[in-house]
Structures are given as structure tokens and as C-alpha cells.
Amino acid sequence: MIQHTTRSPPHDPQPDTPPPPRNARAPPQRTRHTHPAPSPPSQTRVEPHRVPCRDRGHRHPGSARAWTRRRVGLLDNVERGLERAVNGVFAKTFRSRLQPLEIFSALKGELDANTRVLSRDAILVPDRLTVRVSRADFERLAPDGSALVDQFVRDLRAYAHQQRYQFPGPVTVTIVPDDSLTVGMLEVDSRMSAGDVTLVPALEVQGRVHPLRQGVTTIGRSHDCDITIADSAVSKRHASITRDGDNVVLRDLGSTNGTKVGGERITLLELTGPLDLVIGATPVRYLLAPKAVG
């Protein structure tokens, strides 16, 4: 019989230590995490993304600004198309009578949709507007036709002033019957009375535009003035405007209530662009107004 004897390594004497309990948990082991050192920044240059363009001398048509303009224009066209569709569908369905407010809203939309930009400060809109309605609506509106048209003209002038629009001539609104339209439907046609126009300095006073000729133009309450203002706060000879080529100068003529710009009285002022001023108590606007050529 062969016996295997295992020699134990030398054992250092240890102090007597009580054995751990049978169900005791081992103390948690702490693990040291070693993070790798950050790598040096890359020296590779990242080229910016470029959109290929055939002609680098012009802005690429896909730029954000151009895309925004196209998107806004598209939304405007879609909105007008939806308005026409809704107008037709609901008018045919409910056959409601046409209201003056609907006509005025359509007239404003016609101006907005047919602007002609002459310069940064001059936006031309049609001055000849024709509203076509059903025969039943036309007969219902006929008794108040003239008063209604006059109100439309006044409101359109106020709206154009608010939007900085200009008319090439006096505004006219005409309402005519159209047998192809049902009750509640309307369509608006427009055109400009002048074809080719040029811009000339002018004053807009109490809804009327007065082109300024070369030389001196007098302004006051007297009928002897070139531009007469019916306002008791305006002096008989209140102010004058001198136009010498492209130079335009406003001068107060020692008036009682003064000529004011931005609430401040002025005695002499060069007019270089559109400007709102007050003569006496009357608001006046200097602008570049369209004038027919020829």
C-alpha cells in the first residue's frame, strides 16, 4: 500500500482569531478603475459642408433665405386658393347672402396679391377694382350701392396708407352682376390705370396726393396757396416746399401753430425720403408718388 504524503508549507504562527460566522458576508472588494489618458486632438482639418453651385458669383438658389421666400410665396398662393375654394363650396352649400365686410375683405386681398414694387419706399397697387356678384346679391345691394362704394373707397385708401401702398390714380370700385355666380359668391378683377410710371416727390394731404413741381409750392389755409388745407389750426400761408432737381426742402413760414416732425417744431428741413409730419393739426405725408409717363 502506497501512501502519498503532502508536505505543507511552513506556517507562521498567527494569533488566535475567532472564525467568522457561517453566514457572514465577505467584505466588499474595492476595484480601482484606470481611465486611459485622453488622446491628443486630431490635427485633421474638417472641411465645412458645401452645396455645389454652378455659378459661385450668385447666391445658390437653395439658400435658406431664398427657400424661405419661395415657401412664403407658396403659402400665400395656397392660402388664396383655399379662400377661393371655401368661398365657392360654402356659398353653394348654404346660399348665404353676401355681406359688405366680405366684399371689403376681398378688395384688400386683391391689393395684396397685385403689388408692384417700384422702389424700397414705393409699392404700387391697382386703382381700378371691379366686384362681380350674383344677380340676387346685386339687386339686394343696389339701394345702398353708391354709399357702399364710397365707403369701400375710403376704407381702401386708409388700408393702403397703413400698408404703405400707393395708387397710380384715383381709386374706383364698381359692383356688377354676374349670372354665372350663385348667391354668396363674388370675384374681384383689378387693373392699374397707368402703364409706365415714374416716381415724383408729392404730399399726401387729407387723402389726396399733390405732386410737387419744380420751384416753390406754398401750403396754407388760403385759397391763394398751391395746396389748401381746410384746418383752422393752419395759417393762411403756413409753409412752403422748394424742389430744385432732386433736392426738396420744407420751410415753415412763421406759422402760429408750427410745422412738426416727430412732435418737434421745425423751421427748415431737407426731405430725403418718406416722412410723416403735422401742419397745424393736419397729418401730412411726404412721399414719392407714381406719375404716368407720357
What this model shows, in words?
It holds the Pfam family FHA. InterPro entries: Cell_Proc_Reg/RNA_Proc, FHA_dom, FhaA_N, FhaA_N_sf, SMAD_FHA_dom_sf. Keywords: Phosphoprotein. A hairpin with a 2-residue loop joins strand 13 and strand 14. Among the domains are: 94 residues, 2-Layer Sandwich (hypothetical protein PF0899 fold); 95 residues, Tumour Suppressor Smad4 (Sandwich). The chain is built from 4 helices and 17 strands. The chain is an alpha+beta fold. 24% of the residues lie in helices and 29% in strands.
How far is the N terminus from the C terminus? 139 Å
- The rough form would be described as extended
**Portion in helices:** 10-25%
What is the overall pLDDT average?
A: 77
Classify the secondary structure makeup into a structural class.
Answer: alpha+beta
The radius of gyration over CA amounts to 40 Å
- How would a crystallographer describe the biggest sheet? 6 strands, antiparallel
CATH class of the domain at 198-292: Mainly Beta
Q: What CATH architecture of the domain at 198-292 do you see?
A: Sandwich
How many DSSP H or I helices?
4
Instruction: Bin the strand percentage.
Output: 25-35%
Spatial strand arrangement across the major sheet: 8-7-17-16-13-14
Biased composition (Basic and acidic residues): 46-55
Keywords: Phosphoprotein
Protein name: DUF2662 domain-containing protein
Region (Disordered): 1-64
Helix-strand layout with pairing:
Layout: H1 64-94, H2 100-113, E1 116-119, E2 122-124, E3 128-133, H3 135-141, H4 145-163, E4 165-166, E5 172-177, E6 186-191, E7 197-205, E8 208-211, E9 215-220, E10 227-228, E11 239-244, E12 247-252, E13 259-261, E14 264-266, E15 268-270, E16 275-279, E17 282-292
Parallel strand pairs: 2-4, 3-5, 9-10
Antiparallel strand pairs: 1-2, 3-6, 7-8, 7-17, 9-11, 11-12, 12-15, 13-14, 13-16, 16-17
